[in-house]
Amino acid sequence: VTQGSIDRFDRLLIHARYWQGPMSVAVYVKSFAEITEIFDYVKENPLALNQTNFHMFFEKMIVPDHDEHYPHNYLRNCALNYTDTEYVVLVDMDFITSKNAYYRMRKLLRYEQDVKDALKNKTMLVLPAFEYTKEGYKTFRKKKGSKWVPTTKKVMLHHINETEVMEPFHIHRFAGGHNVTNFTKWFANDTGPMYLTPNHHKHFEPYVLARREGLPWYWAGFRGFGDNKVSWFRDANVMEYHYGVLRDFFVFHSGKKSRMGFVDSILEVQRPAFVKFLEVKEQFYHNVLKKRAEEERQPAPVSTQ
């Protein structure tokens, strides 16, 4: 389940090649010409995109072509709403899964009952996220090209430990976003097919495999970068979702390397939207927590036998 604009369609083909399963893609369209361009693109790549459902979002008032206006959460809702599978993988267009992830996940769900039970019991399973190091982006990516993505965990670990051209996503820029993943444990490779992460950080925003039923919706009041995905996990936490990590899966950021310090400026821009989000959600959180407290205070039923 993903979303993007037409300028990200080069990544979409990489998704199709690596994922090799059904995809629900919400596309942000800014002109009728882009609609025609999308149809032409699908016609040119029929085999690669034959399992892809497109959902086009065309705004009545076209906003300027700047990232701060992009309606991430509305598009995420659109892509999620039009899925009909029991399980979903929620990613952004720039994050590519490891090779054959779809078939390997189906096998995992078929043979690993612990994984299936975890998903049924409100546990989201994290796909650890990685990217190029600053130097790796300058050299290795230039050598390999923007369409190259590590295929397996073995390849990923090689480029983290040996060539040192890859690292956990935003580990130096915004560690709170993904550190709960416990990368050290993932690197060690000595767990079962999944391991639990009992802690949660207020900025945690991983990419996950989840059971679709009961998932919250993304709050569409955010536009642009910052807080949009974090707010969804905030809702999930109130709904008592838990987190685990998939040992043999990952996603890799194939987009541009973000600059240092970008997070602070983004959070400042999004502060008014986040304040509004908290105002809207305050009563919802209050009601959920109140109901939970009342249930916990209820005395245990007394046996009459």
UniProtKB/TrEMBL annotation:
InterPro entries: Xyl/GlcA_transferase. The keyword Hydrolase does not apply. One of its GO terms (cellular component) is membrane. GO terms for biological process: protein O-linked glycosylation via mannose. Transmembrane segments: none annotated. Pfam families: Glyco_transf_49. One of its GO terms (molecular function) is glucuronosyltransferase activity. Keywords: Glycoprotein, Membrane, Signal-anchor, Transmembrane, Transmembrane helix. It is found in: Membrane. It is a single-pass type II membrane protein. This is Glycosyltransferase-like protein LARGE2. It comes from Entomoneis paludosa.
